[in-house]
Amino acid sequence: MNVVPDTSVVIDGRVSATVDDGQFEGATISVPEAVVAELEAQANDGIDTGWDGLEELQRLADLADEGVIELEYVGERPNAIERGHASEGEIDALIRDLAEDLGATFLTSDVVQAEVARAKGLDVEHVSPETREVGTLTVETYFDDQTMSVHLKTGAVPKAKRGELGEMRYEAIADEPLDEATMDEYAREIVDAAKESPDGFLELSEPGMKIVQFRDYRIAIGRPPFADGIEITAVRPIAQTDIEDYENADELKERLLERQRGVLISGAPGAGKSTFAQAVARFISDHDYAVKTMEKPRDLQVGPDITQYTELGGEMAKTADALLMVRPDYTIYDEVRKTDDFEVFADMRLAGVGMIGVVHATRPIDALQRLVGRVELGMIPQVVDTVVYIEAGEVNTVYDVRTEVKVPAGLTEEDLARPVIQVTNFETGEPEYEIYTFNRQVVTVPLTDDEGGPGNESGVDRIAKQEIEREIRSIARGYVDVELKSQDKAVVYVEEDDISSVIGKGGGRITDVENRLGIDIDVRTHDENPNYGAGSGGGSASADGRGGGGTQAGQMVTPEITSRHIVIPVDGNHGETVEVQAGGEYLFTATVSRGGEIQVSRGSAIAEELEQAIDRKEPVTVVPS
Question: Are 301 and 236 within 8 A, CB to CB?
Fold first, then answer.
């Protein structure tokens, strides 16, 4: 009897298994060179299936040495063109042709291959891919009841994160480092279990990185050259909570059930965001809502009634399109991070789907701030009406988000009324922030004293000073200083040569500024400023904003956030290299364009740092290198 196996059955290890069962004992196993070439290419690319197939060929060689079978290699290696079209069936066709020429039984575990071969009149033996009961993985033995994650790496002592939520400790859990052979054995055991057990699957398989979902564990396996050694990181949720376990549970439950909502669950890494999201998902699913999830990778622990989706064709936007056909009442979007994620979240919410997103944030307001510039300002309350901030496993803050047309807090002129996003503490009912457009830029103004700056200066005061300074600097050539006297009055100090330019003919220019800002402005020279020279050794300030006496404080700037960029306007220094600082700390070096600005693409690491500094109301300065 002659048997020709294809690549699928060699990778599955079913050729030797079938021989061991006695079905092909004494047969001649003719392995096509095309199979060997395909396995070799996969192994060279670091793909585990290639190594699995080569191990199966070694088992067949051992069986041949024992006289159980005869083993031969037949045919020719495929050329580059045929290998390039392997996904289109070129190599499969070569293998079928060999089976036909030899009059052999064609052995495959690929159902498509089996049907095509039968249609061509071949004698086909189709074996289903083997699944087996998978016991406890070795990596599972490192976990105890308080272990959230285990971290293993070649040449390093095994470590784990253990403890209660918010009080995690990163500690060694063994005495000796692991060698490469042991790590390779652990990694192969995990991947094999994911393939063979119905309790697991490969979430991601790329050269150098595999992410496995196995039972309650999400396991990432890194290999060289992607990592500098074999590394295994296994994560497991340590807490399974119900929504009733959290404060404000009754109010939140009522809010979630009265109608579909747009909710952001925010907090720092490890704070318990996903645990709370799981509790919310189970709660609304138990109350007759159809619930789905969008995750990459999938690691939320939810019941069987909740289907977990990942990227479709490498894009969450395609997943969203498919979900709209499924018509869920609520969708849990785990890890909303990039601009594309926020856009997909907003599109689904505006389509009427209840959306619950999980985002990283260090303060409650930061979650909402991340929408600014990514979603049209006026649409934010339609996209997100509730923000839940989790800290140390507890609900720390809940915000209600809504739009009102009003005069922003701290301003007095009635003609300054505009749409204002009001962020209210859900528990106390007190407004804590207002977000609105002021002089062509979006500002977030804290209404409490908790975030007051130096001298307990309120958020409104800081915004007002920035806007007054910006307006006057567009007119004056020299140094500008602003002092707020009250909510509707300010004094501006400028160089004596700039007085006439700032005031304008008949006071027309300063009146225009007052009308735009809704603030009465008194213009004076620096000599009339009692604080002039303080902190700079009594020296005068130069036109670029640097103090005298050898200091170089830099030019204060007000970045503008657009949908794609953060734009930093710079007065002077065109074509020069400058340093951008926030709160006196270096951020990055850049070259000022001829148009007098620096553009930073949103989504980059630099932009993230700059946005965080802006959110914290840190002064941003530009200093010549």
Answer: no
Give dist(CA 621, CA 605) in Å, integer: 19
| pLDDT (mean) for 522-527 | 88
- Give every CB contact of residue 483 below 8 A, 6+ residues apart in sequence: 490, 491, 492, 493, 529, 531
Q: What is the DSSP string of 433-450?
A: EEEEEETTEEEEEE-SGG
For the chain, helix, strand, coil in percent to 5 are 35, 30, 35
Q: Give the integer Cα–Cα distance in Å for 544 and 541.
A: 8
The span from the CA of 473 to the CA of 476, in Å, is 5
Structure-block tokens of residue 434: 């207002």
Question: 411-432 pLDDT, tens per residue?
Answer: 666 667 888 999 999 888 899 9
Closest of 341, 142, 302, 315 to residue 213, by C-alpha:
302
Q: How many CB atoms lie within 10 A of CB 534?
A: 10
Parallel/antiparallel/unpaired status of strands 354-360 and 330-333: parallel
Residue 3 in contact with residue 29, Cβ under 8 Å? yes
313: left (phi > 0), else alpha (psi -120 to 50), else beta?
left
Instruction: Evaluate whether 183 touches 222 at the Cβ level (below 8 Å).
Output: no
Q: Give the tens place of pLDDT for each residue, 293-302.
A: 999 878 788 8
What value does the mean pLDDT take over residues 524-530?
A: 84
Answer whether 89's CB lies under 8 Å from 95's CB: no
End-to-end distance of the chain based on CA atoms, in angstroms?
80
Q: 18 pairs with which residues across the strands?
A: none
